[in-house]
């Protein structure tokens, strides 16, 4: 998954998961004019050990270009390849996904990393809010579904996040890079480095 033209890691982080009991480490880096998130989640799901490696590539405006997830859940191998086009078309393992046409962000159901993408793209001022449409990669089915989301910036480091028309609401604490450092009842930062 390593990019050949990588120009430097901006930030790396380690989370402890409580809903998915385990850990995840992720790094944000630039590659030419593109941005990438690369990470590994190691956790337990229904008493089965899971390891999922992922890489997400975005353009300079933080729109998702591609994503891949590889690894295993118990004895089941996972190999997911996602591509998008400038027209907002999405493809999963070569099959077009019309249900998520026009979505701007990938959202990995098993990871807190992808909240960073709309946070960095939207650049909300305190008090501002914005709606986004995410292509939600469900776990453990690995199907792509449309997930309406809203981000409202409450203060310098806190966002109110809603999805599914308010079915899920959480206040997310983030660091200066946009990584979530506290996702109530789901993920908590354990270590980080970089700017």
Give a quick rundown of the structure:
This protein is mainly β and 195 residues long.
Structure description:
The protein is mostly beta strands and 195 residues long. The chain has one domain. Helix content is 4%, strand content 61%. The chain has one helix at residues 116-122, and strands spanning 6-17, 22-31, 34-45, 48-58, 64-73, 76-84, 90-92, 95-96, 105-108, 129-137, 144-155, 158-163, 168-174, 180-183, 187-194. It has a 15-stranded mixed beta sheet with strand order 8-7-6-5-4-3-2-1-15-14-13-12-11-10-9, covered by helices on one side. It is globular, with a radius of gyration of 16 Å.
Descriptive terms for the model:
195 residues; mainly beta; 15-stranded mixed sheet; 1 helix; 15 strands; globular
Described by the principal axes of the CA atoms, the overall outline is: globular
Largest sheet: 15 strands, mixed
Strand ordering within the main sheet: 8-7-6-5-4-3-2-1-15-14-13-12-11-10-9
Q: Kindly report how far apart the N and C termini lie.
A: 23 Å
Number of helices: 1
The stretches of 5 or more residues where confidence is low (pLDDT under 50) are none
Helix content: under 10%
Structural class: mainly beta
Question: Mean pLDDT across all residues, rounded?
Answer: 95
Portion in beta strands: over 45%
Number of domains: 1
Q: If you compute it from the alpha carbons, what radius of gyration comes out, rounded to the nearest whole angstrom?
A: 16 Å
The count of β-strands is: 15
């Amino acid at each position: 998954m390593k990019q050949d033209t990588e120009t430097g890691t901006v930030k790396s982080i380690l989370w402890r998961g409580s809903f998915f009991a385990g850990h995840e480490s992720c790094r944000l880096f630039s590659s030419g004019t593109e941005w990438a998130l690369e990470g590994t989640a190691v956790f337990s799901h229904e008493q089965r050990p899971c390891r999922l490696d992922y890489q997400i590539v975005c353009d300079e405006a933080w729109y998702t270009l591609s994503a891949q997830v590889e690894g295993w859940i118990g004895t089941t191998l996972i190999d997911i390849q996602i591509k998008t086009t400038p027209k907002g078309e999405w493809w999963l393992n070569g099959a077009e996904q019309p249900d998520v046409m026009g979505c701007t962000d990938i959202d990995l159901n098993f990871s807190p990393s992808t909240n960073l993408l709309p946070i960095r793209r939207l650049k909300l001022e305190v008090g501002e809010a914005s709606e986004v449409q995410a292509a939600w990669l469900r776990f453990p089915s690995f199907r792509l579904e449309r997930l309406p989301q809203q981000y409202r910036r409450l203060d310098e480091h806190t966002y109110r996040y809603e999805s599914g028309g308010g079915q899920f609401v959480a206040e997310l604490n983030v660091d200066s890079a946009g990584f979530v450092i506290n996702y109530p009842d789901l993920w908590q930062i354990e270590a980080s480095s970089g700017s």
